[in-house]
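Hi U.,

Before I forget, here's the chain from the pilot set. I'm dumping it here mostly so it's searchable later in email.
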Amino acid sequence: MKKEVKEKLLREIYNSFYRTTNLLPNPDTILRKIGRGLEVYRELKNDPHVWSCIQSRKSGVLSLQWTLEQMDAPDEVYTLIRQIFDNLDIYQIESDILEARLFGFQPIEIIWNYINGKIIPTELKAKPQEWFAFDSNGNLIYNGSNPSERQVVERYKIINVQHEASAINPYGHSLLAKCYWPVTFKNGGLRFWVNFTERYGMPILIGQYQRGATNNEIEQLARDLESIYEDAIIVSPMDVKIELHEPNRNSSVELYLELIRFANNEISKAILSQTLTTELEGGSYAASQTHFQIRKEIVQADSRLVQNALNLLIRYTIELNYGWASPPKFRIIME
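Structure:
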């Protein structure tokens, strides 16, 4: 019953938000449950395994060369676009475009300048997703710092790259959303593991005293045992017995390690669609070939995402300067 009431309240809150702002709320179930924005997914990049997987995925595209094919474009148009791309940091732009996979969408601002009689894109800047929303028509809306600054993003101002977006969900699907719970559970396991190591990582010292020992003698023995951990020196009377006891911790250590391995595998599957690239603990030749094919398909899909975004930039540039002309084509060279 409590769950039904909570879900009903959430629906009312989101419906009220839409009626008040005419903006579609992000339907991401995790963000709705924890009451936070996309910045929570950005924090996941602090996890070493998440960061490694992101770099591995991006490197598939960033390691490839690109070319600008003239196609049917007039020489003047091709020369202009070629000069523009030679002056842009293409690989940084590609990396920014691929952030759309991680967050669901990535707005990239185009900085235009008037140079030698032409309107030229001189810089492309990735903007935080939190600054934007979508209306009921799927238009990208700049939120601003207050409602009076809210406005529909003008054509030519932003290239909005989306990952698996739809009319129902223009915010797209975030790969980092699939990593939220694995990272959360892994961090919890790591905290327990650190506490376990601090408590049971060293042998337990057991001091035995004769029956009838005074409180002062017992307290002195406790202080001596404590100093042994620091100095590793044992000096005691013959009637005092000190033993080192090794706790049986193998099963507990394996339990924590298994949790961390499982979480890392889930993260790898979410970002890379496979695990062999990051977890090189074994595997047959056939399995490695399967994973290689999956990686190749991922690189091809990411390359298409980058190509579509940069070819849109080319069309914008031609429209602003020539009205209409056949465009050259940006293409990533697949090996």
